[in-house]
Write a structure and sequence with these properties.
Length: 507
């Protein structure tokens, strides 16, 4: 037996007379602040190791703790919205995130840092789906493309700018400032949200807490497996086997228990909507393309081409700028063209740019990385905005918060899967390439003799073995990066047929 609930009159989230542009700036800044913290910390890890007394393996928990708790909390956003209303939840999230950021900045041990990062991810998780829900409801249907373009700038720019900004802060200030920088930005976000948004009434919500626990356990173990899999050699590790089994059982049980259940913490019935289900899966795969590239490129630039972190960040930055340009370019005519054709065109650009990454060699100059990044980034911008628009096209306004939680957890897990697959393909290809190239290193091979001569070496010199080994390793790694970028390119290509499943946007 279910209780009847009196529906409260619908309240506009934006206060009367507030320009939609100000709402956009508010949620975009908040989104950038939270997503930036996923990547800005990466380059500061070496400095943090000494200060916190952690080993290279232990320090990765600073990243893992944030990512795992965020993935667990994102799908619960719809539940928190019902309980608190969107304005209260936004203010709570910003406040908690700021306090946790300040605590992270003054942490003196690894245990403290991991605990404070858990709090940071806990409070920050709801911000991304919440901000997307606010944007969808603030703008009328005919202007949602423009809204998603504005919101998408934060999603696309923040992961790219994170390493660049983190490298600059670490080099010129101190690693603690990668956390302290959140304080002034967050304070501004809080004041804008307080002043511009309307309060919505909260509800007394029944919740299936056992189902919520199963969801948290399943997603948490999945994220742990994806984050640690490469370091622990995947299923050769008993730990990875155990968490994979727990994750699978917990998630299957959660779906079986929660499908169609009125008090489910996540409304899985929304996945009956073909647009949301297809767009969520496409965003999952898109996360592989976006974050797989972001994970690979700095490794390639720093390890093979000896770029410092700051230079590598600057070379990568044009991708984010091109993505923003792509978003705003299509927002002008998004209401006049079938969005599926825009996505298809974006997939072509993204695949072409990734292909250009896959044909590089050890003599490539900076411009050889910038041009593919611009082409790829422009295509990603063309994909992101219409896909986010179509995801909510056939849903009711009251369903957007729950739908945004589902859609964004697909993006989050997709990014983790993408990074894990990219690193696994890289390692496998590197090993295979080393074996293949090494078989050609023979003392009677004229190409080997000629190469050694260019290094002022002969086959009789002991230094020749070291030189040849280093060169084989470099060439094998270059081949491995090219192979991995080819795999990323295929991920964009396989998305194209799924577009026929998405319903055309109504005008």
């Amino acid at each position: 037996m279910t209780e009847s609930v009196t529906q409260a009159p619908e309240i506009n989230i934006a206060k009367s007379g507030v320009p939609r542009g100000l709402i956009s700036i508010t949620v975009m800044l908040t989104t950038i602040m939270v997503i930036l913290d996923m990547t800005i910390v990466n380059v500061a890890l070496p400095d943090m190791m000494g200060a916190l007394g952690a080993t290279s393996e232990q320090i990765t928990w600073v990243l893992t703790s944030y990512i795992v708790i965020e993935a667990i909390m994102i799908p619960l956003t719809g539940f928190w919205v019902k309980m608190f209303g969107r304005k209260r939840l936004m203010l709570i999230s910003i406040t908690g995130f700021l306090v946790a950021s300040a605590l992270c900045g003054q942490a003196d041990s690894l245990v403290e840092m991991v605990i404070f990062r858990l709090f940071q991810g806990f409070f920050g998780a709801s911000v991304v789906p919440l901000s997307q829900s606010i944007m969808v409801d603030t703008f009328p249907k005919e202007e949602r493309g423009k809204a998603m373009a504005l919101w998408g700038v934060g999603i696309m720019l923040a992961p790219v700018l994170g390493p660049t900004l983190g490298g600059y802060i670490t080099d010129h200030l101190d690693w603690r400032w990668v956390f302290y920088i959140n304080l002034p930005v967050g304070a501004l976000n809080f004041m804008m949200a307080w002043a511009l948004l309307n309060y919505e009434p909260g509800q007394k919500v029944k919740a299936d807490w056992l189902g919520a626990g199963l969801l948290a356990l399943g997603i948490g173990c999945l994220q742990f497996m994806l984050d640690r899999g490469n370091d622990d050699n995947w299923f050769d590790s008993m730990t990875i086997q155990a968490v994979a089994l727990i994750s699978m059982l917990a998630l299957i049980t959660f779906v079986w228990r929660s499908w169609g259940r009125a008090d489910s913490i996540v409304n899985l019935a929304l996945l009956k909507d073909r647009n949301l289900a297809t767009a969520s899966f496409m965003m999952f795969v898109f996360g592989f393309g976006l974050f797989g590239t972001i994970a690979l490129q700095p490794l390639m630039l720093e390890n093979l081409f000896n770029y410092d972190a700051q230079t590598a960040g600057l070379v990568m930055a044009p991708r984010g700028i091109a993505s923003a340009i792509g978003m705003f370019a299509i927002s002008r005519f998004i209401n006049h063209v079938d969005l599926r054709w825009i996505i298809a065109t974006g997939l072509c650009f993204a695949a072409t740019g990734t292909y250009l990454f896959s044909i590089q060699d050890l003599n490539s100059a900076e411009i050889n990385f910038v041009i593919p990044a611009v082409v790829q980034g422009f295509g990603m911008g063309m994909i992101f905005v219409p896909l986010s628009t179509l995801a909510y096209e056939t849903l009711q306004k009251s369903q957007t918060s729950q739908a945004a939680g589902i859609y964004n957890v697909a993006r989050t897990i997709g990014s983790s899967v993408g990074i894990s697959i990219a690193i696994s393909v890289l390692n496998h290809s590197n090993h295979q390439s080393q074996v293949g190239l090494s078989s050609h290193i023979q003392v009677n091979n004229p190409e080997v003799v000629n190469w050694l001569a260019t290094q002022n070496l002969t086959v009789q010199m002991p230094e020749s073995i070291i030189a040849l080994t280093n060169e084989v390793n470099r060439q094998a790694m270059m081949v491995a990066f090219n192979d991995t970028f080819s795999a990323v390119m295929l991920s964009f290509i396989v998305l194209a047929p799924l577009l026929i499943l998405i319903r055309k946007r109504s005008h």
